[in-house]
Amino acid sequence: MAKVLIIEDDKQLSLLISDWLRGQGHLPEAIYKGAEGLERLKFYKYDLVILDWELPEISGPEICKEYRSSGGATPILMLTGKKELDDKEEGLDAGADDYLTKPFALKELGARLRALLRRPAVVVQNELIAGDITLRPGSRQAFKAGEELNLQPKELALLEFFMRHPNQPFSSEALLERVWVSDSDAAPDTVRIQIMRLRNKIDDDGKESMIRTVHRVGYMLVPPEQN
To answer: Which of 72, 130, 147, 155 could cross-link with 223 by S-S, CB 3.0 to 4.6 Å?
Structure first.
């Protein structure tokens, strides 16, 4: 699962991309104005940005430049109707990682996104394994000792995030930032409840939970072989 910010003023195209990303198991957020998109990038964390070139208020290349100059490192895929080589060069020089010309097929968009998500910050794997838990991001399935788990979407998203970041503690606020949409009304108690439900489905009776509570910090997944 990747948290993806879409900054695109064509609402029909934005909706199409958002629906497709959800179908692939990702968490999209759609913004239609450049200035609002730049604000989101300043205050929230994303795994990838899909950025249109021509936007109200501030253009895609200008957003790229300002975001990169402030130290932002999230991969950016720029969308544009411009086809000239000089335009592509301008977009890449502004800080975009890849460039996709409109109109495009969603299959090609998917291939570009997967390539960007293979970078070390977000490693895409066919399977994630922790003890007897196996998660397949592509099919949105999780198994315990070979038996499929009946996980709700947010439980699955939490489990995937923890399995991608084993032995790293995260506060409730950090989990809200990475696993919930940025303008969600969810609160730390929401995280606590979802983790409790997830533990009930993945833990073994009488054994310490794989998802540990770290005092005054938050939560951390510790694979059983490291207990």
So the answer is: 130
Question: Total domain count for the chain?
Answer: 2
The Cα–Cα gap between 161 and 155 comes to 10
Question: In the chain, which stretches have pLDDT less than 70?
Answer: 83-88, 91, 119-126, 183, 225-227
pLDDT tens, residue by residue, 81-139: 876 666 667 767 788 888 888 889 998 998 999 888 876 544 445 678 888 999 987 77
Domain boundary pick from 57, 90, 117: 117
CB atoms within 10 A of CB 76: 28
Determine the Cα–Cα distance for residues 222 and 80; give it in Å rounded to an integer.
43
How long is the chain? Answer: 227
Residues 7 and 112 in one domain: yes
Q: Where is the domain boundary, 117, 140, 175?
A: 117
Report the distance separating Cα 195 and Cα 161, nearest Å. Answer: 12
Contacts of 59 (CB under 8 A, 6+ apart): 34, 53
Looking at the chain, which runs of residues are DSSP E strands? 3-7, 27-31, 48-52, 76-80, 98-101, 128-130, 133-136, 141-144, 147-148, 211-214, 218-221
Residue 111: Cβ within 10 Å count: 12
